[in-house]
Design a protein that fits this description.
disordered N terminus; elongated; Arc Repressor Mutant, subunit A; mainly alpha; single chain; 2 domains; Tetracycline Repressor, domain 2; 229 residues; 73% helix
Length: 229
Amino acid sequence: MVRSLASGSAKQRGLVAQVETGEISTRARILDAALKLFSRYGFAGTSVRQLARAVGLRESSLYNHFPGKKAILEALIAEHGPASSLQRLETARYRALAEDPAGFCRQYADDLLRLWGDPHEQLFMSLLMAEQAHMPELRDLFAEQLFAREQQRVIEYFRGFERKGLVRVPDVREAARLFQAGMTFIRIEFYFLQRSPVPHAKIVTAVRRFLKSYLVLIGAERAGRAKRK
């Protein structure tokens, strides 16, 4: 999905406002330039001199903001990586859905749809896919945060749903993993395996179809109807 910054995520809209008022920080400009350069030339193929030139700084001045390229990459991971998704699961918006498995799954899916369409996220994923084979520490960090911490938090939500009789599944852990796996498969299918961009409406339809079947499978829709009565 291609959207303008003005109609994008809250992060993007904040960036637009900063640009318009001249308040965007040098650190933010460095990160923005690094994301573009790393995704185009690779981490190893991008020099500190290139980064400095891209933001109009002297090379020595860039070191006032980051001690080196690795620190810049770590900052990009902190901003765009799975830790941000984990933080989202701790917000009041998600905690309010602790007794609404269907609402939780729909909110999670909607947030992923917005994230997938973020141009910065697309650049970051290109960088990740290209660099993880060459940087084991990057792969390990994502394995820990995405396939451990975030997954564990989703499993905890599902355990709460099961304790309250809101879902009926033989294995809570596998039910949560199946939900995340389904969303991941949709992303791979439409964002990584297509030769040309897929219309956003088509991706939304695929997500809605998956959610409809999945929620019936875990008994969440039945529980939701009973609760409304």
